[in-house]
Target: Peptidase A1 domain-containing protein
Amino acid sequence: MAFPSSLTLCMFFFFAIFHFCNSLSTSQDYLKLPLLHKNSFSSPAQLLSSDSHRLSVLFSALHGGHRRSVKSPLISGASTGSGQYFVSLRIGSPPQSLLLVADTGSDLVWVKCSACRNCSDYRPGSAFLTRHSSTFSPHHCYDPACRLVPSLKPSFPCNHTVLHSPCRYEYSYADGSTTSGFFSKETATLTTSSGKEAKLRDLAFGCGFRVSGPSVTGASFNGAQGVMGLGRGSISFASQLGHRFGNKFSYCLLDYTISPPPTSYLTIGSGDQNGAVSKSSGMNYTPLLTNPLSPSFYYIGIKSVSVNGAKLPINPSVWSIDELGNGGTVIDSGTTLSFLAEPAYRHVLAAFRQKLKLPIVAMKPKLSFDLCVNVSGVRRPMLPKLSFRLEGKSVLSPPPRNYFLEVADRVMCLAMQPVKTGSGFSVIGNLMQQGFLLDFDKDRSRLGFSRRGCASP
Ligand SMILES: *[C@@H]1O[C@H](CO)[C@@H](O)[C@H](O)[C@H]1NC(C)=O
Ligand SMILES: *[C@@H]1O[C@H](CO)[C@@H](O)[C@H](O)[C@H]1NC(C)=O
Ligand SMILES: *[C@@H]1O[C@H](CO)[C@@H](O)[C@H](O)[C@H]1NC(C)=O
Model:
């Protein structure tokens, strides 16, 4: 045969891990992965209070200057598993299916491995069985790929003459949750839009032996077996596949409270759906901004906020990223609520209070919602309209159900939380993103969004 095997082709490249070694598919192909939503909590109030807990930890950690003491910047992420979207990934030979949290706020793809000593969940299928795969191998600590992950502290000196010296990583999420294990490579089996089965050799991923912290353990992780990092860094799933499918991905998170819940999709590459939307000019764009201190995050720039069309008197500097890397606004699929820098949040809250014509009710303080209304007996509650004017002259106008959530029977609360200025950053969480087709175009460094792109496939 005149064709070199795909393995040799792969090895030809310096960073073999970033290459998709399947010469059969055409560049028009893309991947379309269903996003599942699971909610193990009995009430939205419960899930949201756990989400806010995570983030309050996150911001105090940043405030404490931890950002400086870690080698890799803090990453948000796999949050509490509450208002979470999951994606299924098949890795290994033969393939094993694993359910991962889809997280645009972090980079690492990792799964619980069978050797996990304290993953606390030992049901069959709850971890990746490395012994059952003929293609699994940890990266050697001397491998250049090993420099792409934060290593365990104190760093293990790598002796390259020792044959079995796996690359040990330790990856931390913003709330202090961590996963550690061997940074490894494995074959992933993907089904492309044209129905072809494609093999991605050498998907770089973390084979997790230890997990700790609320984001990645216990009931709050909701039975997930790992995290699919979709962040901007080179080791994220989106980046590793970017070379093959065009450096973009998109998703549409649909309202999971609808019955039956519609299926949301994560598309890697240019799905025809996206093409159609941009052609019909339904797509709005805002530049993706970068923060060298948090290179995983997708930042967007907010210029102003309006409630019922009236621009709020918020100093624009509230939205900027300062020289320490604090501030800015991150778009994160792994966080449920939205978080606004404190002075902006206060203005939004005041405007809502003023505009609401419904009876305001006090919720139990532990729920930490600042504004709730009683909508009992009101068929179509009139809720104020929120809109964000973004960089690039686009306006994000989410429907009220993206920021008012029915937290108890006929009680709706503003699903937003404050963040201290100068110590954290604003977050557009997944609830706020619902019903929008979001297109992360990394080559053009822009985020496209449209409320028209979510029509059923
Ligand atoms: C590396 O391993 C070899 C063989 O075990 C040993 O002789 C050598 O001293 C080690 N080097 C370092 C720097 O530890
Ligand atoms: C796993 O072990 C780590 C370190 O020993 C510990 O901090 C963590 O709480 C443990 N996690 C679970 C789920 O037991
Ligand atoms: C909401 O209003 C209804 C009727 O006006 C009342 O019966 C109910 O107790 C109120 N709910 C709360 C949580 O205040």
Summary: The chain has a mean pLDDT of 78.
